[in-house]
């Protein structure tokens, strides 16, 4: 990678500017979302969605519209606007290049599946974490926020037929993966790499912010680990599409498992965090590490070849 063309703004100021753009865009998106839902379904639907008191098909549709207009679309607009308008460096900040080895997508697929026991164990550890007594109010708030997020997710992922499954896979698996990766592994990770001058620190910081952003505090550790995987996928390959694919595989798998469980095709609940044994955890760690090493070697070799041809990825 080269520093040529990097924005002249200090990374610390870039971060503050990014936060400002994010807050304003999310606020505008929320107002537009409420307005659109009120216009289509009425103000009562907006109030019921706000309280997650959702009982009718119109309210479920309204929740989907609200999710798209107030959250998903703004998260797409934020990194694109920031990269093209604010810093005027779309490639370094969005990393939309497709110049990477296709083998990486295969490796990503297997890494995501082989790391499932790791994520399960991190979930188990996370669930046992208890804050000190003097922070009981904070813990209660965290649990309430977690419950609200889970309730909204369950409503969105109530799939009665194959069309509902396809819609959820495309929206939750595909679109959500794209917009979140552009925001976190695209813009934010780039800012922190330039700020800290340490890509490893930048990847971990970005992963922590990514996990906290979801406001699901008792799933913080597994989502942190996912963010770390996504961060290294992009850093080693130079392309956002590797982490978008990983994110899609993770989310899409969860959606499909939920659908199969709802329709009693499988008996294992998607919420079950005691599926694997100790042997499964150890095996998962060993294979995942080996796959990650292989991914890194192939990715860096491919980038070295591209650089030797005189073409920089970012």
UniProtKB/TrEMBL annotation:
UniProt keyword list: Hydrolase, Membrane, Metalloprotease, Protease, Transmembrane, Transmembrane helix
Residue ranges occupied by any CAAX prenyl protease 2/Lysostaphin resistance protein A-like domain in the UniProt entry: 166-252
TM stretches of this protein: 15-41, 62-85, 100-119, 168-195, 201-221, 233-261, 273-293
BP terms from Gene Ontology: CAAX-box protein maturation
One function term, GO molecular function aspect: metallopeptidase activity
Short name of any one Pfam family annotated for the protein: Rce1-like
InterPro entries listed in its UniProt record: CAAX_protease, Rce1/LyrA-like_dom
Highest rank taxon of the organism: Bacteria
Membrane found in the keyword field: yes
Protein name as annotated: CPBP family intramembrane metalloprotease
